[in-house]
């Protein structure tokens, strides 16, 4: 916590603590009770240590994000062909909404509150079903495996 | 006659709109809060096994699922006719305190601080949490850190931040490890420092809001909250007490099973939110309030050193029964400090690590009532079951529901003072929204409704024609 405050309150020295920061923080988010929406948490859980699996993005994540050298968000995406993944770099983008955080807003919070927003990627996992129920469709699972390979590279 | 509608009301939990009636001179004649959704938990749970109720009803809310869990497991304890192990009660209270901290931090820092720190009349495009971050990053960091502490404590104790399944009928399903105890204890001092710092800061700015304090719902009402046998503040357990606007205790030590002797409910044609009232006084004279302000009005003391000092100062400044709804904010911050102190006390007791944390039993009563304080006020779960334990009937009285009539009165008062129907300005309408926010209503809970938080104010002509509207 001391380090966090130091980073946030002394933006000019924000680079100094980087040596102690995790290399890559993976945040997989989504609702695992809505079929393929659970792809993000599935990926994070598979990665284990160094990854955060969560239901949704919340303000508290801004702090660990600010401490990572790089952050990768993983989320199910209805706009990506089922079974495929789409990787895109993302930038901080302020938003006043607190009920529906997106990765860009979290990066902006990280920048504003803790002095830095790391390099960030969003991996969209092509999903085909968001129906009630646990477990990924074969296509989403295939895409999730692909995402894991991409992250581990 | 004209009608103003605020639809939707923003920075609250759930969907609501406000209607304000104006006369031909543009003066306010009436105002009402409308809660426009219904979710039906009381009906669709019929037929479910009673022991499923905690996990089902926790889904009513993502902010205070722990409160629903606790009221529900207490109702289930009652059906099982068990006295749960002392350590289980301590652990439930500990969990509950974590929730109070995170919920109160959310209400103060994320929802209301933009009004308080950026100004009621500030640019609405910037009067939000990001505007707060830009102008007061230190407060925003405190808000995040305090909420995170509460959420983290819940996760460490119960395994999950939202909808934890650790709390079960008969107790909790696993004892506390010394490692988790030590982890929470290690984080507590920093959280207390934030709570103290925020209280000191708020006390330094509160006098700037003299006009809001004087006009934010200070019409006299009763107050209701849980207290222990000696009148001390209780969040997890305790019995119900009512105090009137003069500070007199009008009902006390009401046990959960007796709630219906004091509380009756009516419905309003304009809202899905039920309207409870104090039965001996009838409707609408029996309007009462719950939540942080009511709890501090009802209790004789908090029971922890720092919160007690703040409690004394609070009542010294504003009297025995503090009337203005604006002071919900102040009371909320005192309670956050109390919850942190209480966590420290509970964790310091060696009994907290005892391994006996659950009682087992089947159906030993066909009815059960669970009562606890949610962050927003008294929460009552009342179930009736058949011999096999299947739910036959459910009544849920939710914190925000208790405040329904009082919120309507407060909206009317704020509207009468601040709104000039001939010259509608955003800052006027924001104060109407702000008084709703002061109560920290959770409409998802109170109607058991899902939705995004919004405010919509509409101004209608006598014939119903829309003259003006404002969305936030």
Textual characterization of the structure:
The complex is a heterodimer of chains A (153) and B (472). Chain A is an alpha/beta fold and 153 residues long. Chain A is built from 5 helices and 5 strands, in the order αβαβαββαβα. Chain A has helices at 2-9, 39-47, 62-67, 103-114, 138-152; strands at 24-29, 51-54, 70-77, 85-90, 119-126. A 5-stranded mixed beta sheet of chain A has the order 2-1-3-5-4. In chain A, β1 (24-29), α2 (39-47) and β2 (51-54) form a beta-alpha-beta unit. The longest helix of chain A is centred in the C-terminal third of the chain and has 15 residues, at 138-152. The relative contact order of chain A is 0.23. Mean pLDDT of chain A is 83; it is low at 1-20. Helices cover 43% and strands 19% of the residues of chain B. Chain B has helices spanning 41-44, 53-57, 65-80, 86-118, 129-135, 137-158, 178-205, 210-215, 259-262, 292-298, 305-318, 328-348, 399-402, 404-418, 426-438, 443-446; strands spanning 2-9, 17-22, 28-34, 167-168, 171-172, 222-227, 239-243, 249-254, 263-266, 275-278, 288-289, 367-374, 377-385, 391-397, 454-460, 466-471. In chain B, a hairpin with a 5-residue loop joins β15 (454-460) and β16 (466-471). In chain B, α14 packs antiparallel against α15. The radius of gyration of chain B is 21 Å and the shape is globular. The chains are: A alpha/beta (153), B alpha+beta (472). The interface between A and B is medium-sized, with 21 and 21 residues.
Which chains have the largest interface? Answer: A-B, 21 and 21 residues
Radius of gyration of chain B: 21 Å
How many whole angstroms does the radius of gyration of chain A measure? 16 Å
Strand numbers in spatial order across the main sheet of chain B: 3-2-1-15-16
What's the end-to-end separation of chain B, in Å?
Answer: 24 Å
| Structure class of chain A | alpha/beta
Q: Which strand order do you get reading across the main beta sheet of chain A?
A: 2-1-3-5-4
Instruction: Give the percentage of residues in beta strands of chain B.
Output: 15-25%
Strand % of chain A is: 15-25%
Find the count of extended strands of chain A (DSSP E, 2+ residues). 5
Helix content of chain A: 25-40%
**Element-level helix/strand string of chain A:** HEHEHEEHEH
> Level of helix content of chain B?
40-55%
Mean pLDDT rating of chain B: 88
**Uncertain runs of chain B with pLDDT below 50, 5 residues or more?**
446-455
């Amino acid at each position: 916590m001391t380090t966090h405050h130091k980073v946030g309150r002394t933006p000019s020295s924000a680079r100094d603590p980087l040596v102690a920061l995790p290399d890559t923080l993976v945040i997989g988010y989504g609702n695992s009770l809505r079929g393929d929406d659970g792809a993000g948490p599935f990926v994070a859980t598979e990665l284990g240590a160094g990854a955060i699996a969560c239901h949704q993005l919340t303000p508290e994540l801004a702090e660990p994000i600010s401490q990572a050298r790089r952050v990768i968000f993983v989320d199910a995406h209805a706009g990506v062909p089922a079974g495929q993944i789409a990787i895109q770099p993302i930038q901080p983008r302020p938003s006043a909404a607190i009920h529906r955080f997106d990765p860009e807003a979290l990066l902006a919070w990280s920048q504003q509150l803790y002095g830095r927003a790391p390099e960030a990627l969003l991996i969209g996992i092509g999903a085909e079903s968001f129906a009630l129920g646990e477990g990924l469709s074969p296509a989403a699972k295939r895409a999730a495996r692909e995402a894991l390979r991409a992250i581990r590279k | 006659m004209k009608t103003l509608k605020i639809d939707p009301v923003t920075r609250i939990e759930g969907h609501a709109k406000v209607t304000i009636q104006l006369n031909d001179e543009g003066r306010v004649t009436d105002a009402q809060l409308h809660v426009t959704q219904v979710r039906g938990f009381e009906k669709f749970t019929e037929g479910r096994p009673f022991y499923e109720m905690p996990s089902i009803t926790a889904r009513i809310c993502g902010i205070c699922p722990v409160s629903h869990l606790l009221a529900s497991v207490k109702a289930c304890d009652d059906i099982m006719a068990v006295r749960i192990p002392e350590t289980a009660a301590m652990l439930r209270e500990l969990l509950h305190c974590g929730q109070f901290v995170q919920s109160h931090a959310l209400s103060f820092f994320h929802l209301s601080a933009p009004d308080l720190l950026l100004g009621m009349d500030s640019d609405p495009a910037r009067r939000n949490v990001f505007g707060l971050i830009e102008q007061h990053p230190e407060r925003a960091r405190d808000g995040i850190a305090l909420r995170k502490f509460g959420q983290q404590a819940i996760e460490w104790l119960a395994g999950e931040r939202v909808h934890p399944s650790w709390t079960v009928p008969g107790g909790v399903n696993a004892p506390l490890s010394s490692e988790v105890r030590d982890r929470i204890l290690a984080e507590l001092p920093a959280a207390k420092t934030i709570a103290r710092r925020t209280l000191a800061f708020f006390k330094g700015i509160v006098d700037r809001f003299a006009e809001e304090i004087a006009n934010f719902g200070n019409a006299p009402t009763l107050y209701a909250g849980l207290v222990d046998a000696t009148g001390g503040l209780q969040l997890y357990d305790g019995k119900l007490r009512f105090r009137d606007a003069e500070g007199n205790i009008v009902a006390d030590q009401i046990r959960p099973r007796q709630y219906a002797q004091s509380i009756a409910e009516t419905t309003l044609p304009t809202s899905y939110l039920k309207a409870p009232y104090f039965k001996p006084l009838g409707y609408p004279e029996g309007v009462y309030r719950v939540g942080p302000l009511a709890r501090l009005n009802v209790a004789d003391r908090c029971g922890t050193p720092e919160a007690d000092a703040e409690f004394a100062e609070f009542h010294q400044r504003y009297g025995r029964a503090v009337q203005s709804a604006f002071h919900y904010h102040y009371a909320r911050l005192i309670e956050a400090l109390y919850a942190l102190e209480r966590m420290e006390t509970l964790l310091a007791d060696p009994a907290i690590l005892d391994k006996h944390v659950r009682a087992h039993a089947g159906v030993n009563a066909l009815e059960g009532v669970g009562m606890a304080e949610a962050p927003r006020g008294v929460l009552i779960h009342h179930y009736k079951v058949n011999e096999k334990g299947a739910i036959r009937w459910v009544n849920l009285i939710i914190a925000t529901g208790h405040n329904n009539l009082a919120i309507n009165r407060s909206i009317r008062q704020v509207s009468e003072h601040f709104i000039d129907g001939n010259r509608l300005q955003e800052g006027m309408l924001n104060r109407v929204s702000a008084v709703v926010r002061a109560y920290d209503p959770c409409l998802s809970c109170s109607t058991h409704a899902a939705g995004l938080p919004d405010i919509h104010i509409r101004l209608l002509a006598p014939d119903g024609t829309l003259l003006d509207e404002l969305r936030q």
